[in-house]
Design brief:
Blueprint lengths: L4 H6 L16 H15 L4 E10 L5 E9 L4 E5 L2 E5 L4 E5 L4 E5 L10 H6 L5 E11 L2 E10 L5 E9 L4 E9 L4 E11 L19 E4 L1
Parallel strand pairs: 6-12
Antiparallel strand pairs: 1-2, 1-11, 2-3, 3-4, 4-5, 5-6, 7-8, 8-9, 9-10, 10-11
InterPro entries: LolA/LolB/LppX, OM_lipoprot_carrier_LolA-like
Organism: Epilithonimonas hominis
Protein name: Outer membrane lipoprotein-sorting protein
Length: about 210
């Protein structure tokens, strides 16, 4: 469980460490993604549930989690593991091992949010509109992203509820055919959140091993 969040967060880093290269983005995809991005950024805060599936072949595993964000901070919970980014430090809390790790995140560790998926299309990817598809009775627009330089990924596919301007699913396939999928549901926006939601309270973890890197 200790490293469970690492592959989950890796899913959201779509080539951020690579230098810019020539790319093609079709106008329909750009229009859809820009509208969705503006929609998210206009909200005070966002909440959603998500399913996370990863692996290959018969070795797929699925879990569910919840996510809160106010665009500058976030809280993520999945399988007894919690991660808090308070805008400055990153807190990884593992209930199973009773451990807390505190660190100053690098750029690749603070991007777990729908905005990271949407902003990343502007860098290092050829982006193509792939048509419409019905998912759970909902018509969605499908957008395919293919890296212009080798970054370990074959492709990334975004599924967008365009009328609501929301990302509802992301699929990522690596060059080794590992699959990672995040399905997003139960959106809530502009809620009245506790002022302490994105704060780490050390007094609650007196029996935990706390390590600050």
């Amino acid at each position: 469980m200790k490293n469970y969040l690492r592959p989950l967060l890796t899913l959201t880093i779509l080539g951020a460490s690579f230098a810019a290269h020539s790319q093609t983005i079709d106008s329909k995809s750009q229009k859809i993604l820009d509208e969705v991005t503006r929609n998210y950024k206009s909200k005070k805060n966002s909440y959603f549930k998500f399913s996370y599936t990863s692996g290959s072949g018969k070795n797929l595993r699925s879990q569910t989690g919840i996510f809160y964000s106010d665009n500058t901070r976030y809280k993520l919970k999945i399988m007894g593991t919690e991660q808090i980014f308070d805008g400055n430090k990153l807190y990884n809390i593992n209930d199973e091992d009773k451990e807390v790790t505190i660190s100053k995140p690098n750029d690749e560790q603070i991007h777990f949010s729908p905005l990271s998926y949407l902003d990343s299309y502007k860098k290092e990817y050829d982006v193509t509109y792939s048509g419409k598809k019905t998912m759970s009775g909902i018509p969605v627009d499908v957008i395919k992203m293919v890296p212009v330089k080798n970054n370990g990924l074959k492709n990334v596919t975004l599924y967008v509820n365009t009328p609501q301007k929301k990302l509802i699913k992301l699929e990522q396939i690596t060059t080794s055919n590992e699959v990672a999928v995040i399905g997003i549901s139960d959106y809530k926006e502009n809620q009245k959140l506790s002022p302490n939601l994105f704060t780490f309270d050390k007094s609650k973890y007196q029996n935990y091993l706390i390590t600050e890197l």
